[in-house]
Here is the input.
Amino acid sequence: MMRLLVVETRRLWLRRLTWFTLFAGLLVIGLTGVATWQQAQPVSAAEQAQSDNDYQQALKDWQANGEQMLKDCLQQQAEAQKTDPKADFQCQAANQAPQREWFGRQPPSFLEIAQNTTRNAALTVGFLVFLIGASAVAAEFTTGAIGTWLTFEPRRLRVLTSKLVATGVTGFLASAALVALLVGTTYAISRYAGTVGALPSDGLRALGLLTLRVTAAATLAGLVGASLGALTRHTGAAIAVALGYAVAIEGFVRAWKPELAPFLVDPNLNAWIGGQSTYSVPLCSTNAEGFYSCTYVEHTLWQADGARFGGIVVALLILVALWAFRQRDVT
Amino acid sequence: MSGAPAIETSGLRKTYRTRRGRQVAVQGLDLHVPAGGVHGFLGPNGSGKTTSIRMLLGLINADSGTMTIFGHPVPDDLPAVIDRVGAIVESPKFFPAFSGRTNLELLAGAIGAPKSRVGEVLEATHLADRAKDHYAAYSLGMKQRLAVAATLLKDPDLLIFDEPTNGLDPAGIREVRDTMRDLGQRGKTVLVSSHILAEVEQVADTVSIIGRGHLLASGSVSAILGSQGTTVVRVGVSEPDRAATLLAYEGWTTRREGTHLVVEGASDPAAVTRALALAGLYVHELTPVVPDLESVFLDLTTHEQLGAPPTSRASRWGGRK
Ligand SMILES: Nc1ncnc2c1ncn2[C@@H]1O[C@H](COP(=O)(O)OP(=O)(O)OP(=O)(O)O)[C@@H](O)[C@H]1O
Ligand SMILES: [Mg+2]
Here is the structure.
């Protein structure tokens, strides 16, 4: 088994497609870097002067008219309360003194940018790793090399298991490298721009955990790819199944039965990566006067829900792939 | 386990699911391949040779029947014997974007063969100087050679070659023939399926002929050829027309071939001479027509396709052990 694992891992890294995929990942990181560069720019003297000016203007305006506006607001509220005693115009909040930070742009800190880009990169990295796994396994069927392979190692469960484990290891390493590179580039850019900002240890820890969660999700995507590759025996078909499912089935189910969200990939993935995700289910009824109305009840999926869902789905898919590979003819 | 035949199948059956419903590829095949020597596995296109080989190697599932390799029931016990079996099924299949050497190295890694072995088998198959090229850039013959090289990685006791000379040039064909003969003489067993019957006739010790998924004849090459060899003679006689009438009257089937007569069913050629001499016809030439494997094969398999009962034929050759 160890021998097979070594050979399969070696084969994955010998494949051109693995390297093309990693190269595509680098391109995406490069593009993200450009956006990061723009965001991270410090505020220029001219921008600073402009926003100072805006602030002074607003302050002056408030000092001159603030009291009157508050009075007007309260009066209108009192008027409204004659018909609806619960009317609340939020007059105090709407007429606060302007604050300096409301004016002008604040360059986001490294931690803020890194959290965002890492979260946004999850889907791309996951898809790239999926592609590595799916094409590596499917190519064996399209070329027929799997037949040759089985005349050297006929124990099918071992054969596919070694491929899955190799894909898992490779997917983990590839996605970890890509995510690390992404965070590293972001830091370098923030630093160069001089807008790294505060680096509190809990913020760093949160970022570290986020990168691990994205890497874990991408690793699972690789296993899904390898399993679908073995089931469909064609890279294109594996991609079509994955995309078709994501777009057609998930989209349809979400629109048709929102309460099934806990059984869909997208909300669970968001919960896993972002910490939680919410979905709302309409509660509709027709009241005594015959009016049909709906209220929306919001539900939350937590990180643990996402983890459990992902684990179960991938485990089931792997079992199905192993079972099918054991049974089916290889011609 | 030394006494066990290399391959034994009994009642082997396989149907494929196709658009036109279930297609029977192998039906009740009883194969017996003795250990040691070269065994030809012959049959027309679509008769089930590749299907049988795939079942033996556990690539496809049999519907029913039993199979053994060196006495091990397969596919269940395949892991125990696979190291003794090298096989090329139908056409060589490797990763096109890897070099020949890389392809072999991966296979060697899977069975724990030393890397030096890869170099050796590349040398042996004359691929060493093209070993670094992508497999996709190989000619058909080079692909075949690489497949042979792959089977040699294991130093197997049983080699299964499904049309190994397909695409090879005359020198390549001779090489494969010599390799097979050499392997056979070294006590290895070679099961070779081929449509070049002259090739098979030269190297095979025993053959099995199948048609439509079942066995038509099996046995040593000499027995299969010999069983027909005594039955046909070519006769040169002074008055062929009169001779033909006379022999037909005596119960032989005859046919004119130029100035000669071809007499079938003559189990004893001397009887033909005697009958003609008694009528005053003098024989100046009498040669037994030794059929080659090709004519026996065609005789068997065309009859088969025309729907003659296969059992009587199989017993007629009588060579089954
Ligand atoms: N994958 C498949 N699906 C459906 N039918 C198949 C499949 N493979 C083979 N067959 C059918 O099974 C029968 C036997 O085919 P097989 O390939 O075993 O013949 P063969 O003796 O190897 O022929 P050839 O000399 O042409 O190589 C044929 O009728 C063929 O059409
Ligand atoms: Mg064939």
Summary: The CA atoms of residues 9 and 151 of chain B lie 22 Å apart.
